[in-house]
Amino acid sequence: MLAALREADIDRYLSLLLMPDAVRNDLLALFLFNAEIASIRDRIREALPGEVRLQWWRDVLSGQRDSEARAHPVASALVEVIERRAMPVAPLIAMCDARVFDLYDDPMPDRTSYEGYAGETASALLQMSAFLIDPDASTLSATASGHAGVAQAVAGHLLMLPISQARGQVFIPGDLLAATGLDREAFLVGTETERVTNAVRAFGGFGREHLDKARRALTGVPASARPAYLPVALAESVFARAEREGAGCLSTSVRLPQWRRQWQLWSAARRGSI
Question: Is the N end or the C end of the chain the one with fewer CB atoms within 10 Å?
Answer without folding.
Answer: N
